Amino acid sequence: MPGIHEECGVLGIYRKDLGPVAEACYLGLCALQHRGQESCGIAVNEDGLFRVHQDAGLVSEVMNHRVLDALGKGNIAVGHVRYGTDQTRGRADMQPTVIEHRKGRLALANNGSLTNYMALREDFESKGFLFHTTGDAEIISCVITRERLTSPSIEQAVLKAMNYLQGSFTFVLMSPRKLIAVRGPSGFRPLCYGRADDGSFVVASESCALTTLGITEIIDIKPGEMVMFDEKGVHHNTSQMGKKKPSICVFEYIYFARPDSVLDGVSVHAARAAAGEYLAKEHPVEADIVIGVPDSGIDGAIGYARAARINYGMGFVKNKYIGRTFINPGEWRKASVHIKLSPVSAVVKDKRVVLVDDSIVRGTTSELIVGMLKKAGAKEVHLRITAPPFMNPCYYGTDIKSKDSLIACRMSQEEIRKKIGADSLGFLSLEAVRKIAAPIPESHFCSACFDGKYPTDIPDTMERDRYSKRLVRVGENV
Amino acid sequence: MPGIHEECGVLGIYRKDLGPVAEACYLGLCALQHRGQESCGIAVNEDGLFRVHQDAGLVSEVMNHRVLDALGKGNIAVGHVRYGTDQTRGRADMQPTVIEHRKGRLALANNGSLTNYMALREDFESKGFLFHTTGDAEIISCVITRERLTSPSIEQAVLKAMNYLQGSFTFVLMSPRKLIAVRGPSGFRPLCYGRADDGSFVVASESCALTTLGITEIIDIKPGEMVMFDEKGVHHNTSQMGKKKPSICVFEYIYFARPDSVLDGVSVHAARAAAGEYLAKEHPVEADIVIGVPDSGIDGAIGYARAARINYGMGFVKNKYIGRTFINPGEWRKASVHIKLSPVSAVVKDKRVVLVDDSIVRGTTSELIVGMLKKAGAKEVHLRITAPPFMNPCYYGTDIKSKDSLIACRMSQEEIRKKIGADSLGFLSLEAVRKIAAPIPESHFCSACFDGKYPTDIPDTMERDRYSKRLVRVGENV
Amino acid sequence: MPGIHEECGVLGIYRKDLGPVAEACYLGLCALQHRGQESCGIAVNEDGLFRVHQDAGLVSEVMNHRVLDALGKGNIAVGHVRYGTDQTRGRADMQPTVIEHRKGRLALANNGSLTNYMALREDFESKGFLFHTTGDAEIISCVITRERLTSPSIEQAVLKAMNYLQGSFTFVLMSPRKLIAVRGPSGFRPLCYGRADDGSFVVASESCALTTLGITEIIDIKPGEMVMFDEKGVHHNTSQMGKKKPSICVFEYIYFARPDSVLDGVSVHAARAAAGEYLAKEHPVEADIVIGVPDSGIDGAIGYARAARINYGMGFVKNKYIGRTFINPGEWRKASVHIKLSPVSAVVKDKRVVLVDDSIVRGTTSELIVGMLKKAGAKEVHLRITAPPFMNPCYYGTDIKSKDSLIACRMSQEEIRKKIGADSLGFLSLEAVRKIAAPIPESHFCSACFDGKYPTDIPDTMERDRYSKRLVRVGENV
Amino acid sequence: MPGIHEECGVLGIYRKDLGPVAEACYLGLCALQHRGQESCGIAVNEDGLFRVHQDAGLVSEVMNHRVLDALGKGNIAVGHVRYGTDQTRGRADMQPTVIEHRKGRLALANNGSLTNYMALREDFESKGFLFHTTGDAEIISCVITRERLTSPSIEQAVLKAMNYLQGSFTFVLMSPRKLIAVRGPSGFRPLCYGRADDGSFVVASESCALTTLGITEIIDIKPGEMVMFDEKGVHHNTSQMGKKKPSICVFEYIYFARPDSVLDGVSVHAARAAAGEYLAKEHPVEADIVIGVPDSGIDGAIGYARAARINYGMGFVKNKYIGRTFINPGEWRKASVHIKLSPVSAVVKDKRVVLVDDSIVRGTTSELIVGMLKKAGAKEVHLRITAPPFMNPCYYGTDIKSKDSLIACRMSQEEIRKKIGADSLGFLSLEAVRKIAAPIPESHFCSACFDGKYPTDIPDTMERDRYSKRLVRVGENV
Questions:
Q1: CATH number of domain containing D414
Q2: What is the mean pLDDT of residues A437-459?
Q3: For a tag site, which of B121, D168, D175, D428 has the least CB within 10 Å?
Q4: Same domain for C201 and C107?
Q5: Is the CB of residue D258 less than 8 Å away from at least one CB of chain C?
């Protein structure tokens, strides 16, 4: 799904003795790569000495063997992957943020978006503070550092700091001797932890990073909860819990998270399959085959097929060698669509096809895909979307920017269907979308991007955008 | 399926005027990348001037923008992708082979393996010839060059040369003014062509490269057929057809080719799904869900599920960002399995699972995958293979080397099942495998790797191996 | 001269309209590369929008075409090169420092070393400030930002800030609309500016950067002077001048600066040649030829030869293709000396040779070079050093760290001579070294590294070192 | 001196047991880098197994640690550096040429240019041979391979092959068990060998490669001589000596070779200094200082100064960090001259300057340099060239292509002087140039580029150029 992007994934590791925490962090971040492909970073803590590396690029590109060797052994580590739309951002706001303050140093990796960023920053600036980035991680570090001056411990400083942070935030932080994981009270973004066979504790945005490290028992960190890891073990602090109504981002289930992850106890794959099942009930159609747009429509298609009792088929082959390759296609422009995705003619030829995808942003990709199927011989193409139409921008860490770029704000569903060239078009209903991740109560979800009901005050993003556009850090790949 | 590899993919382009043939070749080779990932090359012909670039690596790595610019416009091009097991080979035997001879120059890209390579080479060496490579492409070039001395045209030389070549060969060749495509009379490897919207003719190992370039009408080149493209158009020569019995490699349908390709008129996906259906009949089992090993077992799983009337499910998530990343995992060794492939617990937990894959070579990967499913909660795992067991080496361009490395030569099926940890194990029968690509007659297939019935004389490979091990060209990535 | 390193070079450009300031900055920094080879950076100001790129490596490596294109057009730019001993530092403390504060943003590039860094940092930290680096540039930015809150303009803030900075500092700073150049009141490091043909003003550490840009008229910025460039022109502020006695680093003339530079009105080459002449008078010897160690001993050798009326000769060939190549020489260890520097046997064979160099730090290189000459047939080798022996660490921006690493603190001159294997050894006297850059008054120089007379309070460097070793930013080349 | 280029440097190593021959080859090629910067290659022989790596780029770029590791231990190695003008050649004709033939395999690295290349190639092509390159090394390999069929040993085949080779050739060749070094009977290019401390024999184009490896005793290989190294020791064969009159290239002394090399017993530095001395006698002038254009004019300037009893000075500083950096200077075009070479104003201001260089090809560089000196304040600039004017192309391995590009063929000396802007201009005479390398007899030199007296038949180069332009191998850096 081009056009919408999750901002980040975070990871933290704690062990009592020195060990290969950089390698574990590397492996875990690889499993979180789908949450952000623009830049990544790892900070390793070897008994108080911090080593850090960050750069633009995929984890497997940035963290080569020499870098992992240079990061060395450690007892704590935090890591981060950052999202990948705006190519001009390059190296700006790379995380983890690593800073020194009066009482030590800390490295912090955050996933989310503060709604009171501007107010906090102006307050600090009026006291003479200067800023190296336009990112939340730096401002959160400032608040924690300020509270640390009058707190007996870093964890007390973090708890106090939470009172000043509004909107969406979910971070891991390491001090010279502790690893702290915080999920903001609204709980927009997921966070969980577990214990590896070697005794390491691992915190991550999604359970898939933990299972990759062989961890089977996953403990969800609840909205508002702080978990601290130190030499004495694991410490849960729930004093900030319940200060806000939970507002879990439903789009984590629909699109962001990996299908094998289990978030707040609910399988992402199962939620998507359920979305497909609801869709089959809400938008039934006579058809011969159900196929999904790889990879994000596959789970929904399987659910649709099962509920509709229509055969499921493999409608497309994805070229697994292409990666982020760009080619200026010139006269071969049309080919550049096919190079990444190719229809399986034997599956769709002379068939009435139900095509399942997870969203329509601008509609251009859907148009190309429907066209491809028709050219491959599909008799009819019925497009089914496992979410309601996007109607509103997101202020909680998702790159759904302005109404202008959302097709559903400008066109009726019939106009969209015509533009895309589908024979019919059906979106999942608002009611259904809140049920796909049952047994999580329907009221615990944020679905503001669909219905405009924001669970917090809305920031003046224009002003913040102005900030982030004044300073550009040119990246490696420029 | 680790352990077995196709040797090559070939591509050729002809157009009357100068145009972006390098770009088209690049796109087409990207679509053939699954046939070889070790090295690749493109040779462009601009009215008789040849420009060539080859290197170790994926097409999208080797052929960057600067290289494509340097290759320039042309009216003919040939390209090649080469297989990727033996990491020590590096830059050895890269293709296309580009040479100059008395009557001009030629570039040749071949897919196959001659059974009389040694005899041909010894004959040439005894006349004072020297060799830069140990590849078939150079020896085929020698034979053609020799015949060209006494032939009125390059195409006549090629036809005469075919009489001296034995075993498996399928090549595209460009001279200063012509593009020639040859499929050896046994037809082990596929070859087809079509005409693009801009009038270019494109020849490729598989139809997926043609559809990528927007070509809808695919013409199969038949075993023994030569097709020549020049300014007058397309010329089919069938004088060498019928000299051998067709021996189409059945493993192209089972594993090598891409599911969206159509070879000799038969859809690869359909053949794989048919294999799954036969398997369901030959090895039925009570189960709750059918899943496939990504990506090669998916098609067969869909077929099995349909025939067995069991639900099809998405059992694994593949990490699409990992590519060929290598990490020396040390203490995190177990994680390195999970990093590329992760089971979807919600799908398999407490289920009786049918797991479909396309082959078992050494058995180690199957063992890991079955273990992963059990750890994710699968109650039973019934492994079904969409091919018979490998029992014999292949001499026709496939990397099935020696009996020693084939598990089925050393263990009974029950021993294999135990080693892998599956609750039951079933292979497709020899009878069924010859039927999966109907309506191609059963007699037209080579299945020597399963039944040992070689359609040609068998070469003394030991001797040839000695050749190729005397000279190592160190590659970029060493 | 291995073992001693200048910390930095700075550059600033101001023009009224948008133009190729990044390119000019690139060219100027290339001319300053000898002042620092570890990392470099350029910040471009396009009417208030800042774009910046920094990385470990040479200017010509880091600033490729794509980076310069991405930096774009601008009306102001600042650039920096950083020194290159401590390979573990990697990307730490890269400059220019680019930050945002209440009243805008600024980019600052500094050459020097504050003696009150620790006191300033502790003061800021006690107010809750956090630090991203351990460099002077960040702390100077903090002081300026603090003063800016209560100053009507950036230049007033800079002037006030100068009152809080002690030790060595020389910086260029750009705000959205101004370029400001400051040379600290002690004037340890040089700074000058000039006007290019296209009307741009260029500020640089050394005149060689200005002449590279075609500027012929060089204006030295005096110790304590601030020069500000804005749309109204050039503004000299001398209000901070004379607050300290000038303490120009004499080692700039002996080693750091490029021979074609003219610093405070005195040619570096002429000063070095004068050093050679004084040396000829202080340490005469009967000899057949005078040669210099390339490149830093050549100027002194020419002066010695002229004063002693002995022939000057080209004693060594330097391999110009080697660069910073490293090879683990193993059994060929001895060759790795020769690979960079090779004696010209025809010049030294059977000759009594005077060998001129600019310093002896650990003595190991001198030993190798004298040995090379003897092996090439030199009858006698008389080593002459164009400076007194190093006896004391430098706290003003030079990498002369501790007494332990200085051979002259541990050995008598006769012991050094024996170790090196020279037939005689002579150092320039303390009296003479203060005269080589006449007509600058002898009293205006700092020669603390030779005589221990520090012109300022000495900081507790142990403490600062502790800071910079707690946080390591792993570089590209690790 | 831009515009004229030596084609190659060769190196060979023989030792009885396995050892670090790749490393030694690397170090030796680094010392020969001035003879060719376009591409390089090393082939290592480990008891008959050949490993080879070649690529476009400097030795220190192409031969990194991983490559040297992959080349491994060996008992024999040959290496090559290739010249660097024609950027479009890229990877074409890289050496060593490594081939297999009936009786084994060989690797061959050559320096020179055959005058009967076309005749040889046509003969082979008429017998059906095909060619991968347009280089002499491949055709020499063909001749040797042909002779090997009827010779009892590789050395006998080489000796017989010499009868068929005309023009300039100087090569090292390794077979599975022997290293053979051949200097063609005319002896255009130099070749020598010596024995390292570890017992290895090393053959190289110039002695500087041997001294780099610690070898002090240098043995020149004479024109027409073949030296063979095997387990029994060193074997000199002189049977081909005296078949041609020696025609040593005088430009090796003037420009190509490194000053610290000793060729055929004569120091290159001494020959250049002698050229300067002759020049002082032939073209005296009243002046205050003599300076040389770095690096090639320095030796001559020292000679001129000494003979004319005028002070020698350091007129320029070369930027040692720039390397082969290219920048499209746009508005800063003029700066790009200064970036590599900068005049030392203190040396030339208000002075009458004698400027010594080794040649004028197109005159553009001389014009820029003279202009730089005048701008830096020189009162007069008297240009002196340590060679006669180029009037004729070279057919023996030097890149002096056509009369069109030689300024001396189109302008009188007075016209050249005016164009360059010098106050006077003097070239070394034809008589003197033959004396600079005394005691080598004057008659033993080829000076055809100056006087047009070619010692061999002249080939039809047009035809050969046609060959090499039909096939382009695109390089790494394109």
A1: 3.40.50.2020
A2: 93
A3: B121
A4: yes
A5: yes
